[in-house]
Each structure stands twice: as structure tokens, then as C-alpha cells.
Amino acid sequence: MKIEEYLNTLPKSIITGEDVELQDGTLREIFEFASLSKDDVFYHLGCGNGHSLVIALKEFGVKKAVGVDNNNKKISLATKMLEDKNISNWILRCENVLDADMDDATVVFFWFSDYDIIEKMTSKFSKLKNGCKIITIWGPLPGSLPDKVEFPYIMNTVPFKRAGSLKEQTVAVFGTDCIDFVTAWEFAERYSKAIASKDAYNDRFLTILQTLIIWINAKNLGIACGDEIPLPIKNYFGILKTYFNIEMEHLLNQDAL
Questions:
Q1: Rounded CA separation 222/114 (Å)
Q2: DSSP H helices in the chain
Q3: pLDDT per residue as tens digits for the range 185-205
Q4: What is d(CA 143, CA 17) in angstroms, rounded to the nearest whole number?
Q5: Considering the domain 12-162 in this protein, what is its CATH number?
Q6: From CA 241, how far away is CA 236, in angstroms rounded?
Q7: Over the range 201-215, which residues count as b (16 or more CB within 10 Å of their CB) and which as e?
Q8: How far apart are CA 112 and CA 131, in angstroms?
Q9: Distance of alpha carbon 63 from alpha carbon 98, whole angstroms
Q10: Is 138 left (phi over 0), alpha (psi -120 to 50) or beta?
Q11: Rounded to the nearest 10 degrees, how much is the dihedral formed by the CA atoms of 238, 243, 244, 249?
């Protein structure tokens, strides 16, 4: 089956990431990347278990932390945890992120994979105060050049810098216009480690898929190294097809085959 068909067989929560709770170490890396400080009003859209608010308040000293999630059970659990820890200066809201009021935000952490939501939120973010930082994982906001990258963490700052093309945006994210297999693997592995699960096998599989996606996109945009398909890429195409019945070659432009 084609990779798109395979992804459609997975539970929606896996694709959207709504059931993925980032490890505390990853949250600390994100906050250090954002230079989170006592002057910040921090928003986490899709806050889940609320650990991000605890770390932002206790370890980074933000003056206010706001968590938004549409899962009432998660909001209730997060509320109890924050109350039990006797932490102040936080707000939890059970609502759709598209409806969230965040006019006072200075740093927003936003990690969603639904492109429709991302597009609508990008428009919403663009109206926030100048200097507000939007932190994402894996991809920058559509049509925008990142202001800072420590892959997989990406920062866009209001007002957004427009990208002239997807190629320009991709080069800005990866910092090179020559992406080979090793580069693609390195960046894919960084992403897998950032969202690490308890199952190392799943992380390895994710790294393989993301490596192929990074390289295929680079090839289609004309920023892959060389004209030939690297042997490791061919091998992973074969492994996925033989052992998992997953086909990805069709994602390549025909002139790249």
C-alpha cells in the first residue's frame, strides 16, 4: 500500500499527536531554545498533562502560564496537579485552540499536525503583539521563514518573515541546500528523540519514515545532493515494501526516478 493509505489505517490520535505527552527533558530544551524568562506570558496550545506549565513557572519563572486543551479529562488532571503543587499564576482552559484568546502571549508553544488548524492558527498568530515567539516542532509556520532553528525546534517571531518559496523555507530550516542520506537521518533522529516514546522500536521506525520524507522532499525541491538516489534510501524503500507492504517511491517526482 502507499504510505498515505498506511497512515490512514493508524488511529487519528497517533497522526495528530494528541496522545503524545512530551518528556520533561524535551520541554526544558524547548524553553531554553525559546529563552523563556520571568518577563514572559507563556501559552501551551494542546497542553495535555500540564507539566509544561509547572516547568515554565517553577524552573523558568514566567509571570503567567496558560494551558489550552479541548480534552476535559486532561484539563481536570492538570488542574489537580497544579493545585496539589501549590503553584500560582496559571490558567487552564478547556476549549478549541482556534477559539483561544492569547492577546497577552509573548511565547506560544504550538505542536499540531492538522494542516487546516495550522493555517488558521498562523493567521491568528500573525495578529499577536510584535516580538511574540511561536515555537513549533518539525515544521515552521506555512509560508514563513524561521527566525531561529535548533531542529526539530523552530521559532517564528511576529511579524513573520515571508518565504519566497517552499525551497527557500526548507533551506532555512535545514541550514543547507545539499541534503544527503546522512543529513536526512540526523534530522529525523533528532525529531524521534524529541518526541521519544517508551518503545524504541517505534522510534526507529519513525526515524526511517521521517528520513525518507526529508530526503524525498529535498529531492523534489532540488536540494538533495547528487542526481542519483542514494543506496541507503533505495534499501529502505525496499525494506518498507518487502516487510511492511509500504510504498513511498511514488512521492518522488518522475524525473527523479
A1: 26
A2: 3-9, 12-16, 24-33, 51-58, 72-84, 115-125, 166-174, 181-194, 200-221, 231-244
A3: 999 999 989 987 665 567 788
A4: 22
A5: 3.40.50.150
A6: 8
A7: eebeebbbbbbbebb
A8: 22
A9: 24
A10: left
A11: 10
Distances (CA, A) of 78 to 38, 52, 105, 144, 255: 22, 10, 20, 33, 51
Report the C-alpha gap between 213 and 252 in whole angstroms: 10
Residue 67 sits at φ, ψ, to 5 deg, of -110, 135
Cis peptide before 146 (omega within 30 of 0): no
CB 60 within 8 Å of CB 90:
no
pLDDT score at 203: 78
What band does 11 get if pLDDT is binned at 50, 70 and 90?
low
CA 215 to chain centre: 18
**pLDDT for position 1:** 83
Identify the DSSP state of 254: G
Cell of 228: 542519483
Q: What is the pLDDT of residues 59-90, one digit of tens each?
A: 999 999 999 999 999 999 999 999 999 999 99
**Per the confidence metrics, is the pTM higher than 0.85?**
yes
Domain ranges of the chain: 12-162, 176-256
Give the C-alpha separation, 25 to 3, whole Å. 31
Half-sphere exposure of 256 (CA within 13 A, CB side): 21
* CA-to-CA dists, residue 56 to 4, 29, 137, angstroms: 37, 11, 18
